[in-house]
Amino acid sequence: MMLFSRVRGLPVLAPGGAGRVGVVRALTVDGAPWRVTYALMARGRLRRGVPVAWDALRAAGPGALVVLRAGGPDEVPAHHELVGSRVLTECGEEGGTVLDAAFDPVTARIEAVLTTLGEVPPGRLMGLGDHALVIRDRHARHGGRGL
Q: Which of 63, 65, 74, 119 sits a CA distance of 20 to 30 A from 20?
């Protein structure tokens, strides 16, 4: 498992040890099947994130990623920041704030979203937008309370 918080800030290296090309600024998540699709790479302090497809990156030891193939994507999905997002249930109840997320670096599938009110498994994730992460309301189905 890899945590979003551990990936952000990692240097991104060119293939063959040709040097550093940037730093991971954020990860883009695609809902259903809930996987990391892009790393937004910053090149310099004032530049916007350059999207690099997650499947074009590989770990280069514990502290860096390496770009396996050059060329940017033709079309990149909208980026919505998962970490720091407000969490709402499908019924509109507050569910805390996203602190971090765990994902499998090989398949890129989200394994858990860690919030201020506990862990949310991927099966409860419904949607992510600019306003919030929406999750299935557990107590609406099972009669219990809480996340």
A: 74
Phi, psi of 17 (to 5 degrees): 70, 30
Phi, psi (rounded to 5 degrees) for 141: -90, -35
Looking at this protein, which amino acid is placed at residue 36? V
pLDDT digits (tens, 9 = 90+) for 37-88: 999 988 766 566 788 999 999 987 778 999 987 666 666 677 888 999 999 9
pLDDT in tens, 102-142: 999 999 999 999 999 999 999 999 999 988 999 998 765 54
CATH label, 2-67, candidates 2.60.120.10, 2.30.30.240, 3.20.20.150, 3.40.30.10: 2.30.30.240
Q: H or E element: which one contains 5?
A: helix 4-7
Residue 141, burial from CB neighbour count under 10 angstroms (0-12, 13-18, 19+): exposed
In the CATH scheme, what is the homologous superfamily, with its name and number, of domain 86-142?
A: PRC-barrel domain (2.30.30.240)
